[in-house]
């Protein structure tokens, strides 16, 4: 008994964390009362010694250690820069690039501030119409998406052009009469133009955006018609700032409710948004049932990712929130925004 106790004591000085010698631990556990005090009275820990040896001998382990330290530094920096707020909200820096012909197209700072406020309300579920969510959809409502928006710069440029084709992206390069993106790996750029034209030079688009696979490319970001920025002086029925809410959804990897194809009834990768055959317009009345694959489902047309009027859309779903959080997560495709 005495010999066993002494052996345990010596061993306990050699490997004081009791973590590397199972048989030693077993011996101690047979005699807990006698050893506890001694083990606690002189503390040492071989963790660093063990680590030092292991890191020297295993380059893969060393690389993992270095990656972990880098991640810890980045996390600390993000916190101190206020980009990841205390409650985990990711604050996205936003740059507005306004290209106008006439003075009225040069949207005011006040309207841009209104737009940022709309984004912050809609993405935190503090929008004034959030209580309109039908009770059947309340269990699948996102609540606070925990993504917020902060205006960091507004660039303005006069141009003689009266329309900008979405397939040419000339508004995004100064060499083609536009404004270059401000580091799109770190900022969400929004170009405001007087008219968005299709490849046949036809107007009709309120706005468009790039999905996360384009993160950081020169054309990454949103393009929005000046009529749909903010609220004051904006064009009804798209005058509640929700064109930008919708396009930011795409920027954060949300497809339309009917999927990313005009055929409809495709997946939007959110199982809490009922499958939809295609867009809804105007102000539909609830409930609205539509059919995909022979199955009739009550449509979540009040979701921001439908095409209804601004006043008829007021929610994201919980699954949509998860998808957007994945995009801005530390390992996500838009982690650079953090
Ligand atoms: N890209 C869509 C369009 O141009 C945006 C729809 C936005 N919907 C809205 N109610 N603001 O039609
Ligand atoms: Zn869309
Ligand atoms: Ca769905």
Automatic annotation (TrEMBL):
<feature type="region of interest" description="Disordered">
    <location>
        <begin position="265"/>
        <end position="284"/>
    </location>
</feature>
<keyword id="KW-0479">Metal-binding</keyword>
<keyword id="KW-0645">Protease</keyword>
<feature type="compositionally biased region" description="Polar residues">
    <location>
        <begin position="265"/>
        <end position="275"/>
    </location>
</feature>
<keyword id="KW-0732">Signal</keyword>
<feature type="domain" description="Peptidase M43 pregnancy-associated plasma-A">
    <location>
        <begin position="181"/>
        <end position="329"/>
    </location>
</feature>
<dbReference type="InterPro" id="IPR008754">
    <property type="entry name" value="Peptidase_M43"/>
</dbReference>
<dbReference type="GO" id="GO:0006508">
    <property type="term" value="P:proteolysis"/>
</dbReference>
<keyword id="KW-0378">Hydrolase</keyword>
<dbReference type="GO" id="GO:0046872">
    <property type="term" value="F:metal ion binding"/>
</dbReference>
<protein>
    <submittedName>
        <fullName>Peptidase M43</fullName>
    </submittedName>
</protein>
<dbReference type="InterPro" id="IPR024079">
    <property type="entry name" value="MetalloPept_cat_dom_sf"/>
</dbReference>
<feature type="signal peptide">
    <location>
        <begin position="1"/>
        <end position="19"/>
    </location>
</feature>
<comment type="similarity">
    <text>Belongs to the peptidase M43B family.</text>
</comment>
<dbReference type="Pfam" id="PF05572">
    <property type="entry name" value="Peptidase_M43"/>
</dbReference>
<keyword id="KW-0862">Zinc</keyword>
<keyword id="KW-0482">Metalloprotease</keyword>
<keyword id="KW-1015">Disulfide bond</keyword>
<dbReference type="GO" id="GO:0008237">
    <property type="term" value="F:metallopeptidase activity"/>
</dbReference>
């Amino acid at each position: 008994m005495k010999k066993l106790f002494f052996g345990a004591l010596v061993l306990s000085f050699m490997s004081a964390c009791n973590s590397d010698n199972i048989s030693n631990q077993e011996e101690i556990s047979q005699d807990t009362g006698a050893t506890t005090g001694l083990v606690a009275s002189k503390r040492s820990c071989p963790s660093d010694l063990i680590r030092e040896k292991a890191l020297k001998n295993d380059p893969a382990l060393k690389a993992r250690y270095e990656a972990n330290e880098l991640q810890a530094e980045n996390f600390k920096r993000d916190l101190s820069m206020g980009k990841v707020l205390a409650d985990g909200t990711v604050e996205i820096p936003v740059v507005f690039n306004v290209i106008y012909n006439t003075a009225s197209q040069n949207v005011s700072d006040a309207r841009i501030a209104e737009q940022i406020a709309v984004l912050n309300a809609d993405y935190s579920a503090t929008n004034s119409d959030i209580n309109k969510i039908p009770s059947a959809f309340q269990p699948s409502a996102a609540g606070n998406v925990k993504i917020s928006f902060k205006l960091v710069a507004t660039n303005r440029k006069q141009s003689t052009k009266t329309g900008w084709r979405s397939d040419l992206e000339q508004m995004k390069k100064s060499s083609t009469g536009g404004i270059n993106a401000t580091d799109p790996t770190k900022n969400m750029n929004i170009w405001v133009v007087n008219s968005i034209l299709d490849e046949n030079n036809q107007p009709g688009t309120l706005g468009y955006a790039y999905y996360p696979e384009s993160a950081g490319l020169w054309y990454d970001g949103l393009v929005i018609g000046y009529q749909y920025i903010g609220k004051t002086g904006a064009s009804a029925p798209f005058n509640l700032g929700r064109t930008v809410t919708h396009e930011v959804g795409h920027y954060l990897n949300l497809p339309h409710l009917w999927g990313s194809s005009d055929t409809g009834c495709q997946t939007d990768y959110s199982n809490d948004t009922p499958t939809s055959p295609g867009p809804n317009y105007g102000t539909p009345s609830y409930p609205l049932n539509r059919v995909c694959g022979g199955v009739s489902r009550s449509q979540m047309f009040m979701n921001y990712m439908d095409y209804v009027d601004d006043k008829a859309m007021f929610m994201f779903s919980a699954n949509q929130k998860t998808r957007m959080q994945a995009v801005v997560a530390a390992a996500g495709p838009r982690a650079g925004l953090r």
